[in-house]
Inverse folding.
C-alpha cells in the first residue's frame, strides 16, 4: 500500500502576523513530500511514525466525539491500517518550517475522513474555511495551536492567499522567470526549531503594548505590502518592503532567530545582497531569503546551503 503524495509548503509572508490578522501567502513546495505507506520490514523511523499515528488515531477518535458536526473519520479502518504497520513516509524535514505535520494531516484526512471536501469540487469560501477549521483541530495534536493552513496548502497543492482569519482564497501567483536573477531561497540554519516554545514567546510578548503596536504598525503593514507587491509582480517595490520587514524582524523577533544568524541577517540589510525573514515560527529550521541577484547572495552566504524555491 502507498497513498497519494502530499507536499511541503512555504509560508512566504505572514508568519506570526496571521495570528493577529495580517495577510498571509503560502505556496506549495514540491521538493519535499510524504505519503502513507506499509512496509514488510519497517525501519526505526517507520516504527516511530507508526507509534505516533496510533496516538493520533486516539486523538481523532476523541475529536469526532467532541465535535461530531465538524468531522467524522473511518476510525476502524484507520486503526486496522495502523495495526498493520502503516506509517508516514516523508522526506519533509521536521522542525524546519516547511509543514511536515501539515502533509501528514492532509494525507489522513484524504484517506479516512467521511464526506470529505475534495479538491475537485467547486471550492467556495465556506468549504475552504471548513477545511481550514478541520485541519486546525487535527494539527493541534502536533504542536498546540494550529491555524490549519499548512495542511490546507498541502491538501489543495495550490498557493493560498489569507486576507484575514475568515477570508482565504486560492491565489494566482506570477509565473516564475526561469532565467531570472532574482530569487526566493531557503537557508538551512542546521538547527531543528520547535514551534510551541516560539509561539509561547510570541504570546508573552503580545502582552506588552509596545510589541502589539509594533506588530500592527510595522510588521503587519510591511507583510501586507509584500504580499500585494508579490501578487502584482512589482519586484522593485517588493524588495523595498522585504528590506523593511527584515529590519523589523531583526529588531523585534531576536529570540526566533538562531543567535549565529544575527550578524548574517544584518549583513544582508547593510549590503542589500539579500534580505532574510522567518520561515514558519523560527528558532531554527529554514530561514527564508530574498535576493535580486542570486549569484551575489551565494557569494555573500558562502559556506551556507541555499535552496532556490522561486525565480523572479
Amino acid at each position: 500500500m502507498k497513498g497519494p503524495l502530499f507536499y511541503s509548503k512555504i509560508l512566504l509572508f505572514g508568519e506570526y502576523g496571521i495570528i493577529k490578522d495580517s495577510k498571509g501567502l503560502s505556496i506549495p513546495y514540491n521538493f519535499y513530500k510524504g505519503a502513507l505507506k506499509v512496509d514488510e520490514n519497517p525501519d526505526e523511523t517507520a516504527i516511530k511514525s507508526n507509534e505516533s499515528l496510533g496516538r493520533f488515531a486516539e486523538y481523532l477518535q476523541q475529536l469526532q466525539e467532541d465535535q461530531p458536526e465538524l468531522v467524522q473519520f473511518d476510525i476502524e479502518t484507520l486503526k486496522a491500517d495502523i495495526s498493520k504497520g502503516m506509517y508516514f513516509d516523508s522526506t519533509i524535514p521536521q522542525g524546519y518550517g516547511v509543514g511536515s505535520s501539515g502533509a501528514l494531516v492532509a494525507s489522513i484526512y484524504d484517506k479516512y475522513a467521511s464526506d470529505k471536501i475534495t479538491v475537485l469540487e467547486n471550492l467556495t469560501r465556506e468549504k475552504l474555511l471548513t477545511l481550514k477549521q478541520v485541519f486546525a483541530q487535527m494539527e493541534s495534536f502536533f504542536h498546540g495551536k494550529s491555524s490549519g493552513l499548512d495542511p490546507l496548502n498541502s491538501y489543495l497543492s495550490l498557493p493560498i492567499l489569507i486576507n484575514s482569519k475568515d477570508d482565504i482564497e486560492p491565489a494566482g501567483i506570477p509565473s516564475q522567470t526561469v532565467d531570472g536573477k532574482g530569487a526566493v531561497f531557503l537557508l538551512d540554519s542546521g538547527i531543528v526549531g520547535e514551534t510551541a516554545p516560539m509561539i509561547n514567546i510570541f504570546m508573552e510578548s503580545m502582552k506588552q503594548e509596545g510589541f502589539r503596536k509594533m506588530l500592527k504598525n510595522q510588521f503587519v503593514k510591511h507583510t501586507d505590502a509584500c504580499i500585494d507587491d508579490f501578487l502584482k509582480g512589482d519586484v522593485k517595490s517588493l524588495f523595498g518592503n522585504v528590506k523593511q520587514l527584515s529590519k523589523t524582524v531583526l529588531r523585534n523577533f531576536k529570540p526566533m532567530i538562531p543567535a549565529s544568524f544575527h550578524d548574517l541577517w544584518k549583513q544582508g540589510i547593510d549590503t542589500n545582497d539579500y534580505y532574510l525573514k522567518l520561515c514558519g515560527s523560527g528558532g531554527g529550521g529554514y530561514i527564508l531569503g530574498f535576493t535580486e541577484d542570486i549569484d551575489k547572495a551565494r557569494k555573500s552566504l558562502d559556506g551556507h546551503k541555499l535552496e532556490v524555491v522561486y525565480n523572479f
